[in-house]
Structures are given as structure tokens and as C-alpha cells.
Amino acid sequence: xxxxxxxxxxxxxxxxxxAGAFAFLMENKVLADCDVDAANLHLLLDPxxxxxxxxxxxxxxxxxxxxxxxxxxxxxxxxxxxxxxDFNIDPFLCEGCGACGYVxxxxxxxxxxxxxxxxxxxxxxxxxxxxAELYPGEETSGKLVTVVKQKxxxxxxxxxxxxxxxxxxxxxxxxxxxxxxxxxxxxxxTEPSLSGLHDLERILKVxxxxxxxxxxxxxxxxxxxxxxxxxxxxxxQEGLPLxxxxxxxxxxxxxxxxxxxxxxxxxxxxxxAMRKIHERLGSLTS
Length: 286
Fold this sequence. Notes:
Blueprint: E1 2-8, H1 15-25, E2 29-33, E3 48-55, E4 58-63, H2 73-77, H3 99-103, E5 109-114, E6 117-123, E7 129-134, H4 141-159, E8 163-170, H5 174-180, E9 185-190, H6 194-209, E10 214-219, H7 225-238, E11 242-246, H8 251-257, H9 269-285
Parallel strand pairs: 1-8, 1-9, 2-7, 2-8, 9-10, 10-11
Antiparallel strand pairs: 3-6, 4-5, 6-7
Helix pairs in contact: 1-9, 4-5
């Protein structure tokens, strides 16, 4: 199963909009939303949850009051100020390092698994979807992305799917790196702005570090022709294939409000550009 991953160095470039278009245009595929901090691909899919499960990606210190002798050793070694003067542990400040339990003379503190989020599999109007939700303030987003990908590949194996459409996270952090592993191709979506170019440079380095073939799409290219020219020049210098340019189109947010992709409207200029991008990727990767 070939994995097509959509990434952007920054948020708001239209990455999910393009991933949703590919979800509509591709056949025999499975979908995965790996933006676990703020998943939104489902807004275009009308999902119906089939399975869900808890994600325990970290641990937290738990105190047994019956064993505590209030010696203060735990509070002395805690570098995250998670233990107050009454030796109560603040779960929001606790990093689960285990130092308090290590020094406790009565073994009153133990590390317990903490539920950090949830994973989901769902049936949608465009195919099966794997996604997840990381709870506010929680970490280990990369681990949760790995769980989402495992669920997606499991769905693909059961359904004998040929393609996996992956909507990744913005930026270059842990969830992005977890998303990149195993991908067949990475589509980098940027916009004609200075930050768009800067963050494109960073995400391209990530893709090349993992030796994944990368392709470029410039969204809303006609809003800043000067910056668009700079980005195209950068792509030429770096040997980064340009799949296409998507014009600014008010029809895109209107279609999203209706829970649909722009490619589902034959009059949408952005939708027509997305269709051409899909065709060009197929010709380059077939």
C-alpha cells in the first residue's frame, strides 16, 4: 500500500484541503489524519465511528497516602515543581520522570499509566478513516501518530487497499517525523509568503533526511506573485518538482462549510487545479 503524505512547514497553507481532494479523487484507498493535536480532515468526510480506544502514552506519579511519612524527599528532587508543601502531586505539572518514586523511602509513590488521548477508526463517505485526539496539555504526539498509522495500515490490509492518504501535522516536530516514516511520497503544500518559503525550506530538509520523494504545491499562488516567483525559483534550485499551483478561490471555504472538497464542484477553479495536481502526481509516480 503506497502512502501519500501531505505536509506543510506551517499551518493554514491548505494542506488538509488538498488531502481531502485526493481522498475524493483516489480509488481503493484508506485515509489517515495524523494531525493528532488538531485533527480536521473528518470535517470533509461525514464519519461514523466504528472503533475507539484510549491512548496511554505517558505515566504520572501517584501517591499512596497510607505509606507517606511526609519526609519531603520527593519534593526536594522534583525539578518540575509538581509536588506542593502538603506533598500533593499536580498531574498537570508531573512529567512522569519517576525521580520522586526513586528516592521515596517507603515506596509511597509509583508511576501509573496516564490516558493522554483517544484513537478512532470510522467509516466515511470517501472510505475508511483512522484518526486520533491528543488531550490538551498532553505530550507524546509522535507515539499517537504511530498508533493512527498502525490502525490505517491494518484497515488497508483488511480491505486490500492500494493507497493511503495521510494528512500530516504542520511544522517539523515529533508528529511530522512519525508521519514521514514509511511514506511513499510527500506533497509539500506552501503559500506565497515569506514564512511559507522559510518553512518550506525546513520541511523539505526533513523529507530529504528520510529520503522520501517530495513534491511541491503552491496554494493561493495568485495572492502574491513576487513571493510565488521566489518559491518557484527555490524549487528549481533544489530540484523539487512542482506539481502545480492552486488559485485563490472563495468556493473552497464555501464547500468546506458544506462538508465537501472543492473538487466536488465542477465550477471551482481551485478544484480544477487540484484535479490536475492529482493527475500529475499519478503520472510521476506510476
